[in-house]
Amino acid sequence: MNDLEFLTLPEGRKVQIKGMTRKELKTYFHTIGEQAFRGEQVFNWLYNHMVTSYDEMGNIPKTLRNKLNELTSIISLELAEKMVSEESGTVKFIFRTEDSQYIETVIIPEEERVTLCISSQVGCPLDCKFCATGLMGFKRNLTSGEIFDQYLLTQKEFERPITNIVYMGMGEPLLNFRETARSLLIFSEETTKRIPISKVTLSTAGIPLKIIKLADIGMKNKLAFSLHSCFDDVRSKLMPINEKYPLEINLEALNYYFQKLKSRITFEYIMLKDINDRDEDVEALIRLNRRIPSKLNIIPFNSLKHMNPGGISSELEPTSFYRIDQITKLLRDEGVTVMIRNTFGEDIQAACGQLASKYASS
Predict the structure, then answer these.
(1) Where are the alpha helices (DSSP H) in 262-320?
(2) Nearest CA to 189 among 85, 47, 83?
């Protein structure tokens, strides 16, 4: 990206400074006749101290703060609603954007960690049949500032420190590659001390050229791949994107990612009764693990009834817990690293696959 590309705005509109990378901030301050180190200082205030106004930036001169208030904005999101699960303590935040779109973000508190699940798009264009976000359709991409603000605002609202971030909320991160990459660059900077990039996981349904591009950037975030079937016919039925990017092309890209970064891939696998929980599915998962160093996250299917779905989405049923345990044992006996992801927040439609803002039609 050209260093000045982010400054191309409609006449009269303020520059959105939240979401700029360290390099972009230094460039921006140079363009307005200020020293580059001021950009470093603002970066530290925004992303380490997580302030929300220039008045809080103690080492920035008042004259410069006034200038920045005239030229720029640091507003991204506004909290519209907060819901807390009585069953698990999971918290769902509904945020309003400046153009009155709505996104959902979830905090999952566990004994040893607190995971934040963030969104990268308003809705999603992929139409995965097991996912509520796909059923609500696609509105637009989020900016890097809106992506980061989900972390900033939820951390201010939640008493425990967030320890892990997963790009597994609304949207396909790699279809919003530029803004997703900018947000990852912000988290990867040493001055963004609160969340190490190694504790950030990006999940994708499979955009192979973008997986390769992400590997070439060389950041040390983790990568998760929404697998859900090892067979193209089944995967295409569940995930229409598989028609455009078949599994084999994605597996080649994932192998490239592993070879480049030496980071094991996480395969995500929502268990669906009589669809992907057959004996042949287990055998295929074993073969896949031997081909690409990986681990497997088994995810119980969560209800989509709040979306009143039609078609195949209305027919999906969860695999029984007995069968999940049986499959897990078979896989572990063959050396596959398997984790069963517990369901949190289903009572507030905050569990995996359930995010779809009730304000979506506003």
Answers:
(1) 279-291, 311-315
(2) 47
Are residues 342 and 351 in contact, defined by beta-carbon separation less than 8 angstroms?
Answer: no
Question: Catalytic one among 24, 104, 172, 179?
Answer: 104
Longest Cα pair distance anywhere in the chain, in angstroms? Answer: 69
CA proximity to 205, closest of 284, 285, 112, 270: 270
With beta carbons less than 8 A apart as the criterion, state whether 207 and 242 touch. Answer: no
Mark whether 104 is an active-site residue: yes
pLDDT, tens digit, for every residue of 41-71? 999 999 999 999 999 999 999 999 999 999 9
Please say whether the beta carbons of 261 and 202 come within 8 A. Answer: no
Question: Own/partner pairs for 87-91, CB < 8 Å, 24+ apart?
Answer: 87/345, 87/346, 87/347, 88/344, 88/345, 90/344, 90/345, 90/348, 90/350, 90/351, 91/154, 91/157, 91/158, 91/350
Q: Which domains does the chain have, with CATH numbers?
A: 5-73 (1.10.150.530), 77-348 (3.20.20.70)
> One of 124, 128, 131, 352 is an active-site residue; which one?
352
Give 144-176 pLDDT, tens digit per residue.
999 999 999 999 999 999 999 999 999 999 999
- Both tokens of 158, joined, read 């939640």
Which position has the token pair 């192979």?
A: 208
> What is the b/e burial string over 103-128, where b = at least 16 CB atoms within 10 angstroms of the residue's CB?
bbbbbbbeeeebbbbbbbbbbbebeb
Cα 292 to Cα 260: distance, rounded to the nearest angstrom = 13
Q: How far apart are CA 285 and CA 279, in angstroms?
A: 10
Q: Give catalytic status of residue 280 as yes or no.
A: no
Tokens describing residue 13: 């509109």
Q: Which residues contact 288 (CB under 8 A, 6 or more apart)?
A: 227, 230, 251, 267, 294
